[in-house]
Amino acid sequence: MFNNKVLSLFALPLLMSGQAFADDAPIKVKVFIGSMFEIGKNTGDKAGEFQHWYERYFKNSQPITVKGAASPVFCNDDGVCGSVLGMGKVASSSSVQAILLNPKFDMSETYFMINGVAGTPPSRGTIGDVSWGTWAVDYDLGHRWAPEEGLHDGQAFIPRKGYENIRSYQLDPTLVAWAMKITDKTPLLDSEEAQKYRQRYPDDNARRSPKVLTGTHITGDTFFHGPGMSKEAQYIAKLYGADDYVATEMEIAAITQVIARTQGTTQRILSLRGSVNFDQGNPNETTLEHLDPAPGQTAGGFKETVDNIAKVGGEMTDYIVTHWNTWQNGVPPLK
């Protein structure tokens, strides 16, 4: 018969094996925070898009290297993970795909908080605004030509057939409504520099204080500027049946496509953007002058806006995590 000492020797490898299995279990991710760039370090210097998120959630987290992702992933004990994905459609979406397919993470129930800075048309937004995307619309995936070569419906763009299912995505309206309910009263930071800059524009929306709002986020790898390009972006949004265009950015349509392919749904995606510039100059400056301003003539408000993004997004993140029993199986009905 085996004595207790022998049984203990047999049991030890089994216990160690069980512990190893537990340690290797994938991290169940409740909320994934994806930013596009960081200026320097993740903490202690000038903040880019990720630093405030890192300081709020990941200061005590160790980096997890993911093959194919632009930067390490950080996760805390509450099931919140985040990473810097890279700017533009290809860099950001390939990072998301690498993270989603990595066995270190269980993202079967994850909410995606895709965020960053953006531009906004002065007719609809202002510096420091934070907007939740109701639609993700790709600015490309069509035919575009020089205006002098002939206009179609007043525009030099028509969509190309075959992209109907990936050129625009309506993000879950109930989830967006929840986000507004939780965050629309969030006090936003502002700066004297931005306040002065706004007065160059005649639009009421451009001149007001920043707020939380909703609308279409237009994705394009081109930094388009000028009233003509802004009008075209609005034209594309309306052509696809989307809401008014409020933010120009470079990633969300591509990231949404990757999530849709891998997760089979887009119902847990939040697009959050903070406006740091107008998409056109004021009536007294040319587009080139707007793109290359004289020293001291920039919009200002970048520091405050990246703080606003994380503040607004953090409120929604915390709400989901705190009420996980309600949110785990999907977006609950709006109360």
TrEMBL record:
<feature type="signal peptide">
    <location>
        <begin position="1"/>
        <end position="22"/>
    </location>
</feature>
<protein>
    <submittedName>
        <fullName>Purine nucleoside permease</fullName>
    </submittedName>
</protein>
<feature type="compositionally biased region" description="Basic and acidic residues">
    <location>
        <begin position="193"/>
        <end position="207"/>
    </location>
</feature>
<dbReference type="InterPro" id="IPR035994">
    <property type="entry name" value="Nucleoside_phosphorylase_sf"/>
</dbReference>
<keyword id="KW-0732">Signal</keyword>
<feature type="region of interest" description="Disordered">
    <location>
        <begin position="193"/>
        <end position="212"/>
    </location>
</feature>
<dbReference type="InterPro" id="IPR009486">
    <property type="entry name" value="Pur_nuclsid_perm"/>
</dbReference>
<dbReference type="GO" id="GO:0009116">
    <property type="term" value="P:nucleoside metabolic process"/>
</dbReference>
<dbReference type="GO" id="GO:0003824">
    <property type="term" value="F:catalytic activity"/>
</dbReference>
<dbReference type="Pfam" id="PF06516">
    <property type="entry name" value="NUP"/>
</dbReference>
<dbReference type="GO" id="GO:0055085">
    <property type="term" value="P:transmembrane transport"/>
</dbReference>
